[in-house]
Amino acid sequence: MALPIQLDEVAPAWRKLHASLRRTVGDSAYDIWLSRLELKAWDGAVLLLQAPSDTEAWVAKRFGRILEDCARHVFGDPVSVAFTGARPGTARGAPRGRHGSTRADADARWGAPSPERGSRLNPRFSFDQFVIGDGNRLAHAAALAVAENPGQTWNPLFLHAPPGLGKTHLLHAIGNYIVAFGSGATVRYTTVEAFTNHFIGSLSTHSVDRFKTSYRDADVLLIDDVQFLGSKAKTGEEFFHTFNSLHQAGRQLVLTCDRLPRQLVEVEARLRERFESGLVADIDPPDFATRLTILRKRAALDDIMIPDNAVFELIAARITDNVRALEGALIRIVAHHSLTGRPIDAVLARHVLDGIAPVRSRPDLSIQAIQSAASSYFGVDAGALCSASRTAPVAWARQVAIHLARELADHSLADIGTAFGGRNHATVLHACKRVSERLVKDLNARADVDKLASMLRSEQRDRTC
User: Fold this and answer.
1) 154 with 183, same domain?
2) Mind spelling out the 3-state secondary structure of the chain?
3) Based on the domain organization, do 351 and 239 belong to the same domain?
4) CB-count exposure of residue 39 (10 Å: 0-12, 13-18, 19+)
5) Which range of residues forms the domain containing residue 38?
6) Are 47 and 193 contained in the same domain?
7) What is the CATH number of the domain that holds 32?
8) Domain for residue 243, yes or no?
9) Same domain, 339 and 249
10) pLDDT at position 416 over 70
11) Are residues 415 and 433 in the same domain?
12) Are residues 73 and 213 in the same domain?
C-alpha cells in the first residue's frame, strides 16, 4: 500500500487543480460550489477531498467527473477522486443517471452522428460566452435556472426573439451545461425541420415506435424554430403527443420561436396553450454598451487583436438589431485585413461597413443641438451640462443628452466625451447605461426621453424639407 504523501508537497499541484476547475466550470459555479474544497489526503493514486457538509453530496454528484478529469490533467493518470463523507462502497467515478447511464455513456450517445440524435450541440455556445444585457437578462437567468435544475423550474421554457438575438445560443448553452454537469441526463437538441424529416422518414420505413422512443426517452428536449410547425399538420400532431409525454413525465422542454405563442395562428390552439403554460422569455435587441461587449468578447474568443477601439464603436453604431450581423461585420473587417494587408482601423471599418450597413441619409444632428434641446427641456443651463456639477437635475439632463448623442447621431464616444467637458470614454458609456436602466423602471423618465428624441427628429426632418 502506498504511503500517504505530505500535503505541502502537492500544494502547487493543488493550486493548479483549482485554477483548472475555475477555467472549466466558469467563475460563478466555481465560487459557489468548488472554491471551498479542501485536500485532506493524497497517496499518489487517490485525492481525498472535503467539501462543506451541507453541499458535499451535491458537489460529488454534480462535479465528480469534472473533478476527476481536471485532477488527471494536473496530477497525471491514473488518479481518482473521493470525498471524506462518501459512504463505504460508493464508487468514486462519475455518478450514474436515472437510466443507469454514466456521463461518458451519454456523451458517446450524444456525439454519434446519427439522424436520430438530431443536430449536434455547438460547443462555442456556452453561458460563459453569452453576453448579458438589459434586453436578454430574463432569458439568460431562466435558461441558467433550467440548466441547473431541468424539469424543476420553468417547464416548458419558451424563448422568443427575432432572428439573430441569441435564442439558439441559449438553447445550446442549456444543452452543453447539462451534458457537462447533468450526471448522465440525456439531452436531445433538434430543429422542427429535423424533427419533421425524422418523422416522415420513420413513416416510410415503418419505424415510428423507434422514432417516438428516440425523443420521449430524453431527459431534456431542446427544440429550435417551433414557428415552422404551423404548416405541418401531421408533424404538429406527433409533436403534441411528444410534448405531452415528456411534460407529464417531468422531463424538461425548451423551445425557441421568432414570435410569441399567441401569434402562432397556424399552430393548433392546444399546442399554443402548452407553450404558454411555462415561462415565455423575450429577448430584445442589445443596447450600445452590450453590442460593444459582444464584439470585444468575439474578438477575444477568436484571438483577434484590434488595437483601435473606434473599430468596435463603428460596428456597434451601424449594426443595432442583430447579434449575428454584428459578429458577421467584425469577421468581414478581419477578412479584408487578412486579404489586403490593410491595418484594422477606423478607415477600413468604415469602408467595409459602407458596403453592408451604409449610414442612413439624414442631416447631421450636432452634439451642440442635442445639448441645447436637453438644457431647454429640463430647464438647466446649457453650460452646466459640460461642467463638473453633479446635482440631480443637471446630472440627469447631461446623461440624457449623452444618451441621445449616442443614439441619434453618428458620433464616437471620444467626440461625445470631449463635447461634454472632456469626459472620458468610460464616463460616456456609464451615462448611456444609467439612462437605459432608468428607462426600464421609470415611465415618466421614458416619456421625457421619448418626447425629447421626437423633438430632435422633427428638427432633422424640418431641415431636410
Assistant:
1) yes
2) CCCCCCHHHHHHHHHHHHHHHHHHHCHHHHHHHHCCCEEEEECCCEEEEECCCCCHHHHHHHHHHHHHHHHHHHHCCCCEEEECCCCCCCCCCCCCCCCCCCHHHHHHHHHCCCHHHCCCCCCCCCCCCCCCCCCCHHHHHHHHHHHHCCCCCCCCEEEECCCCCCHHHHHHHHHHHHHHHCCCCCEEEEEHHHHHHHHHHHHHCCCHHHHHHHHHCCCEEEEECHHHHHHCHHHHHHHHHHHHHHHHCCCEEEEEECCCHHHCCCCCHHHHHHHCCCEEEECCCCCHHHHHHHHHHHHHHCCCCCCCHHHHHHHHHHCCCCHHHHHHHHHHHHHHHHHHCCCCCHHHHHHHHHHHCCCCCCCCCCHHHHHHHHHHHHCCCHHHHHCCCCCHHHHHHHHHHHHHHHHHCCCCHHHHHHHCCCCCHHHHHHHHHHHHHHHHHCHHHHHHHHHHHHHHHHHHHHHHC
3) no
4) middle
5) 7-83
6) no
7) 3.30.300.180
8) yes
9) no
10) yes
11) yes
12) no
- Considering the domain architecture, whether residues 58 and 171 belong to the same structural domain is answered as no
- Burial code (b: 16+ CB inside 10 Å, e: under 16) for 312-336 equals bbbbbbbbeebbebbbebbebbbeb
pLDDT at residue 461, rounded to an integer: 56
Chosen domain end from 282, 302, 334 = 282
- Mean pLDDT to the nearest integer, 430-445: 84
Contacts of 175 (CB under 8 A, 6+ apart): 121, 187, 189, 220, 222
Contact 109, 55 (CB under 8 A): no
Q: pLDDT tens across 347-399, in order? A: 898 888 888 877 655 556 788 889 999 999 999 888 899 998 889 999 999 99
CATH of the domain at 398: 1.10.1750.10
How many domains, the chain?
A: 4
Which of 356, 388, 411 lies at the terminal end of a domain, its last residue? 356
Mean of all residue pLDDT scores within the chain: 81
Domain assignment of residue 245, yes or no: yes
- Residue 248 inside a domain? The answer is yes
With contact defined as beta carbons under 8 Å apart, do 279 and 255 qualify?
no
